[in-house]
Amino acid sequence: MFEKRFYVEGLAHASYLIGDSGQAAVIDPKRDVDDYLEAAERERLKIVAIFETHPHADFVSGHVELAARTGAPIYISHRAPATYKRSPMRDGDVVRVGSLEVRCLETPGHSPDSMSFVVCEGGAPVSVFTGDTLFVGDVGRPDLRDAEEKPTQLAQALYDSLFGKLLALPGETKVFPAHGSGSLCGRKISSAPFTTIGRERLYNWALQLKDRAEFVCAMVGNLPDRPAYFSNSVRINLAGAPALGSLPELRPLTEEELKTASAHGAVVIDTRSAPFFGAGHFPGSLSVGLGSNLFSTWAGFFVVSGKPIALVVGSPDAAQRARIELARIGYDDVIGYIEADSLTQTRQLSQLGVDELHFALKRGEAPRLLDVRTSGEYEAQHIEGSIHIPLPSVPRRLGELPKDRPLAVICGSGYRSSIAASLLRIAGFSRIQNVMGGMGAYLETQPPEWEPSDLVFIGENI
Questions:
Q1: 188-240 pLDDT, tens per residue?
Q2: 3-state secondary structure (DSSP) of residue 125
Q3: Orientation angle between helical segments 295-302 and 229-239, nearest 10 degrees
Q4: Rounded to an integer, what is the distance from CA 47 to the centroid of its chain?
Q5: Average pLDDT, stretch 39-66?
Q6: What pLDDT, in 10s, does the model give residues 165-177?
Q7: CB 123 within 8 A of CB 94
Q8: Which of 377, 382, 427, 384 is nearest to 402 (CA)?
Q9: For the segment 59-114, what is each residue's pLDDT rounded down to a tens digit?
Q10: What share of the chain is helix, strand, coil (3-state, %, to 5)?
Q11: Is 450 exposed, middle or buried (CB count within 10 Å of its CB: 0-12, 13-18, 19+)?
Q12: Which residues pair with 410 in a beta bridge?
């Protein structure tokens, strides 16, 4: 059996091409589908099936485009309220792909319409594609479709799907999930690309919770923040996203066009790194650096779905990359880009060095500190007296922050703090600084015993 994994960093999304005897299937395709077509052509395989484990919340699928380009049917749970042409599947249904037999298992829990697909060779299960139901070292969260079904009810369904169906498979069955480490669809997902049913029985933390009530309680507690775009992605996936090639060509903007777009409600995202943003940026722009794999996730936290987006970039290549990353979460309305060097009217965001911060703290003259790291990071180590507000919570907790005194924002590296600082600027905070290098640099730098005034040499002391 041919088997290839495709992985999108940042979204931590895994999709798969499997095949045998000249035929192939794609499981949970990403938005940009050319990779599957090219791989299938190289392997002399014809894509005859597209399997969707559920309508995804964290990324927009390319299933409808792939179906249009290959003629392959889309297989998804009969419970999914999809409006595109598809083949609704039920428990026990079988699809043949070459000599492979793909058996459908209804495994609700992460969503009401989750399915797993068991691949059999010679009648015996060899692998199972579990979507967001079972991960390596973790299980799916049950709250992302809470508008349709209560998380407690989905957690109960998840328990039944895991203990009653997936764990009933042979221990040697390989498990291929839709996400890896860093995905917001779980809590403690491993970075390992696959696992086995037997290994998960022994080591998966959630599968040690064999008492149903204890399991449900654990599933609905301590859930990570979810970006606002998640609900919009589900809606797009149920209808089917337009083909990526059908989107308007990304065009360069003049500064006047950018000003006009901003005045009419477009969100301006500056994709450069924090130091470049600090040195000079378009007034009112949001700093989300493209250098991080989490670019699209952070954009999805703070940009309202459906709003037009204009990009400030370091180069046209960066604009094209940002366009793809945004399209993967359903943000298609990117009206254009401007190269930062073309801007003539900019604002600066002061960058505070960690040496300066050490000295200011030593003298009792430091600005108020806002730490935007996660609760776990903050609890492990933080600067005494700092305010802690995790980055996703900043927009709704602005009232807790002082507008009448200087405020320095810190994170782990300076990336998230730049996002937060730009959000505060947009909200009207004027005395904002970004701590360069974040806590990582701060902890590595020990304050020297000398004072800055010691560096001023006079006369014969030079």
A1: 999 999 999 999 999 999 999 999 999 999 999 988 888 989 999 999 999 99
A2: strand
A3: 100
A4: 28
A5: 98
A6: 999 999 999 999 9
A7: no
A8: 427
A9: 999 999 999 999 999 999 999 999 999 999 999 999 999 999 999 999 999 999 99
A10: 35, 25, 45
A11: exposed
A12: 371
The answer to whether 196 and 24 are in contact (CB under 8 A) is no
51 versus 362: which is more confidently predicted?
51
Q: 179: which strand partners?
A: 13
Please indicate whether the domains covering 247-342 and 350-444 agree at the CATH topology level. Answer: yes
What's the mean pLDDT in 445-456?
59
For residues 411 and 362, which has the higher predicted lDDT (pLDDT)? Answer: 411
Helix axes 415-426, 295-302, angle to 10 degrees: 20
CATH no., domain 2-232: 3.60.15.10
Selection from 16, 30, 1, 50 nearest residue 233 by Cα = 30
Q: Which CATH superfamily is domain 350-444 in?
A: Rhodanese-like domain (3.40.250.10)
Give the Å distances, CA to CA, from 244 to 180, 290, 327, 403. 25, 20, 8, 43
CATH class, domain 247-342, is alpha beta
DSSP 167-230: GGS-TT-EEEESB-TT-TTSSS--S-S-EEHHHHHHH-GGGG--SHHHHHHHHHSSPPP--THH
pLDDT attached to residue 293:
94
Query: 3-class DSSP state for residue 7?
Result: strand
How is the chain split into domains, by residue range?
Answer: 2-232, 247-342, 350-444
Which residue, chain included where needed, has tokens 């938005």? 31
In DSSP notation, 44-60 reads T-EEEEEE-SS--SSS-
